[in-house]
Amino acid sequence: MESTLEYPCPICNSEEGLTLSVHTSEIAYFGEHTEMTIICNQCGWRNTDFIPSEGKKPSVWSLIIDKSELMTTRVVRSSSCTVRIVELGLEVEPGDNATGYISNVEGVLNRFSDAIAMIQRSAMRDGNEGLEKVESCQELIDSIARIKEGEESVELLLLDPNGHSQILNESATSTELSEEEIETLAIGPQIPIFDSEDLAT
């Protein structure tokens, strides 16, 4: 289903309206979900999110990554989810342009590695002043490579105040977030929110 929203673009403020594309499908072990994509035809901004058909509670999903076989584990990350790798002190919070995605553990690790490599390249341009940061970045990149090979163990966390995220592995655990924990988390982009009833009308 595709429709036009009478809502200004949060990036370019265009009043032309946003295009909403809605697609419902089944994800193995995750159940029926709605993939919702909002696009601005003026500036090209887009936001994709995944909304499960059944109501979910605010949750934190945890997976101990200690073997290479876990690299193929499916990960569903919504636009309201904070992703952490505890032992490496790495965290990605949902910003104003956060978008949901379906990937696997290796893909999540690659996203961290790519972001760190970008910071490293920027530090390299600073010459000697950025040398310490370059070395720190390389240590993190090397650690992520070892994790992918199963040579290093870390905990991957998905903290989602909307409860739309999930790690699809029998070794993964899920617990409900407390009110105090929810208050400390970013909630992602402030765009029009729809529930399953809105999308059905």
Write a brief structural summary:
With 201 residues, the chain is an alpha+beta fold.
Number of domains: 1
Report the CATH superfamily: ZPR1, A/B domain
**Contiguous runs where pLDDT drops below 50 for at least 5 residues:** 192-201
CATH class descriptor: Mainly Beta
Q: Structural class, please?
A: alpha+beta
What is the CATH architecture annotation?
Answer: Sandwich
- What is the residue-averaged pLDDT? 85
Alpha-carbon Rg, integer: 19 Å
Distinct helical segment count: 4
Helix and strand succession? EEEEEEEEEHHEEEHH
- How would you sum up the global shape? globular
Tell me the major beta sheet: 5 strands, antiparallel
- Span of the ends, CA to CA: 11 Å
Strand order of the largest sheet: 8-7-10-5-12
Percent strand equals 25-35%
Describe the structure.
The protein has 201 residues and is an alpha+beta fold. The protein has one domain (2-200): ZPR1, A/B domain (Jelly Rolls). Helices cover 24% and strands 33% of the residues. The strands form 3 sheets. Strands 8-7-10-5-12 form a 5-stranded antiparallel β-sheet, with no helix packed on it. It has a 4-stranded antiparallel β-sheet with strand order 1-2-3-4, with no helix packed on it. Strand 3 (31-39) and strand 4 (46-52) form a beta hairpin. Helix 1 (105-124) packs antiparallel against helix 2. The radius of gyration is 19 Å and the shape is globular. It starts with a strand and ends with a helix. Mean pLDDT is 85; it is low at 192-201.
